[in-house]
Amino acid sequence: MEVVLTVENTEGELSRISATDADYYTALAAAQAKIPEGSRAINIRVPDRDM
Q1: In this predicted structure, what is the pLDDT of residue 48?
Q2: Do residues 18 and 32 lie in contact, with contact meaning Cβ atoms separated by under 8 Å?
Q3: Are 39 and 8 in contact (CB under 8 A)?
Q4: What is the pLDDT of residue 51?
Q5: What one-character-per-residue DSSP string does the chain give?
Q6: Conformational region of residue 43, where left means phi above 0, alpha means psi within -120 to 50, and beta covers everything else
Q7: Distance (Å, whole) CA 5 – CA 22
Q8: According to the model, what pLDDT value does residue 32 have?
Q9: Distance CA 7, CA 29 (A)
Q10: Are 1 and 25 in contact (CB under 8 A)?
Q11: Distance in angstroms (rounded) separating the CA atoms of residues 25 and 38
Q12: What is the pLDDT of residues 1-51, one digit of tens each?
């Protein structure tokens, strides 16, 4: 499963960080670990989510 975070830095600039793993929670934790210090996730997407 892939998780994509939209991240905002202290200047208000946006970027995207993604991580892929076996399940949502593991992928989310991996993506969150990539967030630079001083930035914050403002959106979480799961592009290939099964409905």
Answers
A1: 74
A2: no
A3: yes
A4: 43
A5: -EEEEEEE-TTS-EEEEEEE-SSHHHHHHHHHHTSPTT-EEEEEE-TT---
A6: beta
A7: 17
A8: 97
A9: 14
A10: no
A11: 22
A12: 999 999 999 999 999 999 999 999 999 999 999 999 999 999 999 987 654
